[in-house]
Amino acid sequence: MIVGLTGGIGSGKSTVANMFARRGAIIIDTDAIAHAVVEPPSPLLGRIASAFGPEVIGPDNRLDRARLAQLIFADDEKRTRLNALMHPEILKRTLAQIGEQPSDAIVIVVVPLLFETSFERNCQSVVAVLAPKDVRRRRLLERGGITEQDAEARMRAQLADEEYERRAGILVRNDRDLASLEREVSTAWQKIRAADRAR
Predict the structure, then answer these.
(1) % helix / strand / coil in the chain, to the nearest 5?
(2) Cα angle value 185/15/159 (rounded, 5°)
(3) Fewest beta carbons within 10 Å, which of 108, 138, 172, 194?
(4) What's the number of CA atoms in the CB half-sphere (13 Å) around residue 101?
(5) What DSSP element (H or E) covers 28?
(6) Residue 160 to residue 83: CA distance in whole angstroms
(7) Is the pLDDT reported for residue 76 higher than 90?
(8) 101: phi > 0 → left, psi -120 to 50 → alpha, else beta; which?
């Protein structure tokens, strides 16, 4: 069974994914894949440099993610252009990894832009992690390396919580403590297991 896991930046997708992993799920993280597809000598690096300028490649010949983020989160057109370059390769590798898993596994694929890229078409179920904007902003700032203005820009670039609530089949609310989140994840896991048995 393929389950998509999504939610806004700072909502706690990685924490929730780890909790699902402890319950027996196989986790595929498309953020990790997004890092891998631009590792030198990736041909994607050259295409990104052509699209956004050589300054997005650091002195170590690796992608300067901080510089690229400054560009794309300030400009919707540039963000769309980057997504058009990255997403086909990310999708190809993600589907390949899914294909390598046992047929009876519950595979949870963490996809931040799941609905924006129509990845739900590859899933039997979708889980969305929800947290209020002020909580997500605080978490982003606590990570460090990001300004409040950058945090706002990144949150604005994603779907509103109402869209996640409308489009996801299972919701996990992450606005309290870890014990509350564990209970939310346990309930979601029961629903996933029930849907898997019913297939």
Answers:
(1) 55, 15, 30
(2) 85
(3) 194
(4) 18
(5) strand 26-29
(6) 19
(7) no
(8) beta
- Report whether 110 contacts 29 (CB < 8 A): yes
- Residue 66, pLDDT > 90, answer no
Tokens matching residue 170: 């299972």
Dmax (CA) for the chain in angstroms is: 53
Give the pair of three-digit tokens for residue 184.
């939310």
Beta-carbon-side half-sphere exposure of residue 133 (alpha carbons within 13 Å): 13
Q: How much is the average pLDDT of 67-85?
A: 90
pLDDT at 154: 86
73 band by pLDDT with thresholds 50, 70 and 90: confident
Strand order in the sheet with 2-7: 26-29, 107-110, 2-7, 125-130, 170-173
What is this structure's pTM? 0.90
Over the stretch 92-134, which tens digit does the pLDDT of each residue have?
999 999 999 999 999 999 999 999 999 999 999 999 999 999 9
First to last CA, the chain: 9
Secondary structure of residue 42 in the 3-state scheme: coil
Tokens 């869209």 belong to 163
**Cβ neighbours, 10 Å, residue 96:** 10
Distance, CA of 22 to CA of 116 (rounded, Å):
28
From 43, 38, 42, select the one nearest 68 (Cα to Cα): 38
Distances (CA, A) of 180 to 131, 173, 175, 187: 13, 9, 9, 11
